[in-house]
């Protein structure tokens, strides 16, 4: 049985600084949109069909599924509530824990762009892949700084208070032959129980859905229609002087420019590669093929996992209600 990536116990400085990013990852769940003439809905009002989700039926500007069952504003609200509960709990243990609020705008999802590419040539010419901005944007994690200033013994105590000890570990099977080790102790676990009621069920539902979402992307990338479009994209990029195998490798090529060029020249080269990438995505209809296949494969998945999607959305809705009480909203 393989071990899934996810919110395992963490005690080191780097793990403290990554905790919030893990929350964001767990917030990215399957989109729920009208597909193939139907949709999965969550009934919350009169006139709605039972077992349906109505509040987040939307697609992104490129026609793809939005990555949320909750809008980013509500996800951000949950993150702040969890951070607030953790801060209170850590204070009771004699430690300082600063509430770190996520950005007002949802962090960019790079994984899908790496797989399917983007045909927004105007933005790519102007901003590239955003690598230059990312290289200069390195916010200080106050909690990581705080932990670094502690003695080694207090760092261990801090980690145990935050994430629990080895004795608190529990293995959760999340489907697909994978298992996840989580902590049932510590302030993070306590905060999640306060918000979600049952963190084991929360994690199990998320990964059960997310694992199948990964299967959709994998199927798209292996589909003959996508492969045909990708071959055209590769030829287009080669004509522009770039021997790369897919949009992800084009981004990797752009990132490597920062290892041997100064930041200004590297940024120029990044935008040149990104613009070529976008032009070739449009010329080859790579994104168009990917989105069409994604809708088809996702429709089957939504039908197969409708019950779990409804259960997960209900769990999130309850968490939002409890977060409102936590933050006094």
Any overview of this molecule?
The chain is mainly alpha-helical and 329 residues long. The chain has one domain. 60% of the residues lie in helices and 6% in strands. The strands form two sheets. It has a three-stranded mixed sheet, with helices on one face. A hairpin with a 2-residue loop joins strand 4 and strand 5. Helix 1 packs antiparallel against helix 6 and helix 2 packs across helix 8. It is globular. About 19% of the residues have low confidence.
Question: Which consecutive residue ranges, at least 5 long each, have pLDDT under 50?
Answer: 5-14, 17-68
Helical residues, percent: 55-70%
Oligomer: single chain
Number of domains: 1
Overall geometry comes to globular
Count of individual helical segments? 14
Number of strands: 5
Provide the gyration radius in Å.
22 Å
Strand proportion, as a percent range, falls in: 5-15%
Distance between the termini: 43 Å
Q: How would you sum up the major sheet?
A: 3 strands, mixed
Q: What is the typical, i.e. mean, pLDDT?
A: 77
SSE string: EHEEHHHHHHEEHHHHHHH
Question: What is the topology, as strand order, of the major beta sheet?
Answer: 1-5-4
Structural class: mainly alpha
Record the SSE blueprint.
Layout: E1 2-3, H1 13-27, E2 41-42, E3 52-53, H2 72-92, H3 110-116, H4 121-127, H5 131-136, H6 142-148, H7 152-163, E4 169-175, E5 178-183, H8 186-196, H9 199-222, H10 224-239, H11 247-256, H12 263-284, H13 286-304, H14 306-327
Parallel strand pairs: 1-5, 2-3
Antiparallel strand pairs: 4-5
Helix pairs in contact: 1-6, 2-8, 2-14, 3-11, 4-12, 7-8, 9-13, 9-14, 10-12, 10-13, 11-12
